[in-house]
Predict the structure.
Amino acid sequence: MGGHIVASFDEELGAIDRLIREMGDLAQDMVSSATKSLLDNDVGLAQRVISDDLSMDDKQRQIDERAITLIAKRQPMAQDLRAVVGAIRMASDLERIGDLAKNISKRVNAVGSGVMQRKLSHSIDTMAGLVRAQLAGVIDNYVGRNADALVTLRADDEKIDVHYTAVFRELLTYMMEDPRNITPCTHLLFCAKNLERIGDHATNIAENAYYMMVGKQLPVHRPKIDETSISGDPR
């Protein structure tokens, strides 16, 4: 009987883990597609990202329901409990990444394909590449249970912050040069801020995954070089 209970617990935990992986894959696709839709002014692709957010929300609800049921039925302890609670936290961060990708896609029409979009395309694409690499690395190392690599990935968030500050300053310069640039640059500022926030959520996932694996928290302090004060889109 005991072996059956253990096997059932492992199956239930495995189902939650698979949903986390699915959310991670979807999050990566949404970030890539949102960036591409912005840079290519692809409204159709932007609409697909917005629709994908519904799937992301559904997967988070499934994880929450499964995790709560698992805790109530099995009353896990130690590492097993960390795995369940960690999954809930990671799902929340992944869901927010989906929201932020959706927010970028919602601005595609407003940004359009004007001069500002073309001038900033390289800077935005470079920043998005850093974010995608960080998110992919976090998910890959969570799946591979590579705790040491997660420590390095968390530190990489500093590179995203530095690049965001550079984009922020570049956009402000364009706005001061010509008032006609203010509207498109403001939309691009929010898009860049959303990318920076995605990096923060990827960092949160790395921290939770590390705690799941090792049972210790990473140091509270991590570098933050964002020298701007603009906030991202609300949900």
Remarks:
- Residues 230-235 have pLDDT under 50 and may be disordered.
